[in-house]
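On to our target:
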Amino acid sequence: MTKIKLFGVREEDIPYIEAWSAQHKVSVDLDSQLLTESTVDSVRGFDGVSVSQQIPLPEVVYKKLNEFGIKQIAQRSAGYDCYDFELANKYNLIISNVPSYSPESIAEYTVSQALNLVRNFNDIQQKTAEQDFRWQPAILSRSIKDLTVAVIGTGRIGSVVAKIFANGFGAKVIAYDIVKNEQLQSIVNYKDTIKEIVEVADIVTVHVPASDENHYLFDESLFNSFKEGSVFINCARGSVVNTRALIEAIDKGIIKGAALDTYEAEKGLFPSDQRGVILEDELLRSLIERKDVILSPHIAFYTDAAVENLIVDALDATMEVLQTGDTSLRVN
């Protein structure tokens, strides 16, 4: 019987793994630990490997996987920047990812955070908790249908966000992408530059991948171009935003508030339990303490549908490699 070892398994993953295992008659071994130099020896005797982690692998891990006869690593996420493709290729390892897992889940979370910022939900809740029940200018908000929404990146997730804002709320949606999505042409007005759309947008939401080209895409210069009083949402990747520049733009009053589901230095922290720990990262501590920033631990995707998609697609990719020698989800 085929045997697959899964690392980084969480409690919510188990029912979907067991269901897949029973359906495909494949033996699975579940490990909550990450794949590291210390745990790689446990892979001996298995046919395939699936992981969920952000921490880079040292060369010895690639080497041992090859020695154990492993042909692939199935990453249970869209991001795969923790892998060294040169080492993967050197040791004949196919790296796969899950490029799309319930884009609706992430889009819904994005829109909910935009509503939170625009409609002042946190401020209203705080005032109510203080028994301040007054209607007052500080919590007066605007209707989404009267606002302009800028969507940066109109792929799987960004396109759903654009549809929700345009069709669900009647907002004006403008967008930027290096490749225009033809299916959105009737509801989205594409512009030639990001600067051109952030200058007029009331809501700016980001849905681009992490890459060398996109590193600090949102920097001091771009944030200074934002429309005064706008809100900013990043449910994409932390590395695309210069966090200090964002904070400066908020402090200047250019940006009213931000919702960040990802952070540029989140590796090793999201997800983890840091209760009772004094965080060494002062920048992260400042984000947590701010009332004009909503920070969440890379959780926009976190629905039952997304968790199931991550498990099933990663294990399907593993079997595809074992049966055919390759997979359509290969990234190296």
About this structure: The first strand starts at residue 3 and ends at 6.
